Amino acid sequence: MGELLERYNPIITSKILAQHQRNHTIIIGFQHLSERIIEHCIENKKNFAIIEDNLELVEDLLNSSYPVVVGDPTDSVNLNNANVKRAKEVFICIDDARIAIICTEKIRLVNRECPIYVRAFGNHVQEFLRQKPFNAYSFSTSKWAMEVVHEWTNDKKGDAVVIGRDYLTHRIAHHISLQSERQVYLFDDENDGIEFEENSQLHIINEFTRYLSDLIPHVNFKNVSQVFICWTQESDFDESLYLTSKINLRFPHIEIFVRIYDEELVDLVGIYNARTFSSSSHAFKMLQKEVTSESSISPK
């Protein structure tokens, strides 16, 4: 019967596998940080289960017969299917603060002991999750990533171009705009504003920038000293590489920083004298420092 289920309905098979996990790690939400946690569990033969409502994101895991619950993580049925009651730890890696809070609350109702690690952007959300009865460890991957960005941007002169759509992109743009005599041009085609207080040195352009010609009407590149390309989707990497090559060719004096998720791409980007950084890789290493010694991702 198990072989028949696996052949005709891997979703059911993976859910059954998740239900039978014990003393395991639960990952809620499938993103780049989640991927690194899962890869570590697989490589080190640690029990885990993941809850994700987007079937396409976990299709490879389903086809490989790993424990996956496809569905809304705020639904108690899906939490039970992942056997939250018997979990030794939970990582909540989603962008929506409301969903993170609801998940944390429901997990605590059935498991008062397991550590819960919650990715959250706002300081007020982080403080709320740290309080009783949640007692969660809350962190911001974009804050951790900014440590290396500070090294690259402090004491620099000249304007900056920042391209992207997420919290880290906005943090970088806001941080540079607070520096003396630096104009920052933020290209974000999804968000009208940012989560931080805006100022006269920060210019937000709501346009998608596939080509260098999309940037030039808004920016005088003779005054630009740094460009940060921070797209989060792997499908955007072609645009990242194209822009990097064109900027390097036309304006070799500019420092270029490209966000990547696949370490194999480092050498490819390096051809154009650009530096690469991975927020999820850095976040995973920082998270390893914070987990308990019994954690599945604890660096043994």
How would you describe the overall organization of this protein?
The chain has about 300 residues and is of the alpha/beta class. It has 2 domains: about 1-140, NAD(P)-binding Rossmann-like Domain (Rossmann fold, 3-Layer(aba) Sandwich); about 145-280, 3-Layer(aba) Sandwich (Rossmann fold), CATH 3.40.50. Helices cover about 40% and strands about 15% of the residues. The chain is built from 13 helices and 12 strands. It has a 6-stranded parallel β-sheet, with helices on both faces. Helix 1 crosses helix 2 (about 10-20) and helix 8 crosses helix 13. The two termini are about 40 Å apart.
Provide key terms for this protein.
300 residues; alpha/beta; Rossmann fold; 2 domains; 13 helices
Brief description of this entry?
Helix content is 40%, strand content 17%. The strands form 2 sheets. A 6-stranded parallel β-sheet has the order 3-2-1-4-5-6, with helices on both faces. The chain has a 6-stranded parallel β-sheet with strand order 9-8-7-10-11-12, with helices on both faces. The longest helix has 14 residues, at 97-110.
